[in-house]
Amino acid sequence: MYLHLGKGTVVDEKGVVGVFDLDICSQSHLTRKFLTLAEKAGRVINAAEDIPKSFVVYQDRELSAVYLSQMSAATLLRRAENGDL
User: Fold this and answer.
1) In angstroms, what CA-CA distances link 27 with 13, 77, 78?
2) Which of 15, 37, 72, 80 minimizes the number of CB atoms within 10 Å of its CB?
3) pTM of the model
4) Phi, psi at residue 77, to the nearest 5°?
5) DSSP state of 75
């Protein structure tokens, strides 16, 4: 199955490592450091048309990336559970 992250971005659910709430997780200095390093490495993909609310850590054989999404983490998780695109 696939997961729609917004702005026409779709990823294979098998590669999703985690879905995180940006407001809650960015309070941790470790998460901020992770996101900063990912951005410097060019691995952050903006799938948000507006202010991002969540981020998705994704990894498969060809790609390791962090997707920013304007959808809440709860919405993305519900979509994954229901199999909705």
Assistant:
1) 26, 21, 24
2) 37
3) 0.92
4) -65, -40
5) H
